[in-house]
Amino acid sequence: MKVELAVEPLGSWIDTNGKPLIIAGPCSAETEDQLVETARQLKALDAVHVIRAGVWKPRTRPGSFEGMGEAALPWIQRAKAETGLPFAVEVATPEHIELALKYGVDILWVGARTTVNPFNVQEIADALRGVDVPVLVKNPVNPDLALWVGAFERLAGAGISKLGAIHRGFATGEASKYRNVPMWQMAIELKSIFPQLPIIGDPSHMAGKRAYLNELAQMAMDLNYDGLIVESHIDPDKAWSDAAQQLTPTAFGEMLDHLQIRQVES
Ligand code: PEP
Ligand code: MN
Description:
Strand content: 5-15%
Bound molecules: phosphoenolpyruvate, manganese (II) ion
Oligomer: single chain
CATH topology: TIM Barrel
Number of domains: 1
Number of strands: 8
């Protein structure tokens, strides 16, 4: 099944000079210093196009850190002013969208626990009607391709045309060394349905552990993914969420140096 989706090519909304789009930043914005310092160190790598930071954190079970919320948005403004880099934030409700846009967040993403819920996705799409902002959609937590496809159809139906997919792997219930099983064929299938949709690999949430990041990032590059989103924190072991999978900006720079990235024809 091939579906026409009015998607603007990635290069028309973010300039990566023909290279894969690199998004990096902490799982969560924790403090102003942590966010601004991480962003500064990532900027210094001269290889990062967008900084990511979780502000509202959908945790599977209650009792863990659920994000700083609106308080973190002025920190993002400061980090943007200091680095000149655009920011991407996860949104799950119309209220998140309103606040993120009010504080100048540049790119929104829909998280894996939101993509599973068509009511939720439709609310997000309705809140974005008439708004010209790029939206990236993570695959649903469970391996159900139709939910991922449906999310793009709902957003495109609301007029969003700067769209991209984030492949973060799936909870399959099988034993795996990875936190989320990649199931690469799911992303390949998505691409066959929406050939013009950019796909960004998220080795951090696939891996769950720093040790597996390189191999997963390389696999995404070998499959000609359009970019990577990687969690990076100035002090990963002390991170308030996803500590085991985050990399210091320096380690992330080394990982990028060792990645074999295809030559993109211009
Ligand atoms: C995240 O990006 O920090 C996150 C919560 O990811 P996911 O939605 O893929 O679990
Ligand atoms: Mn995370």
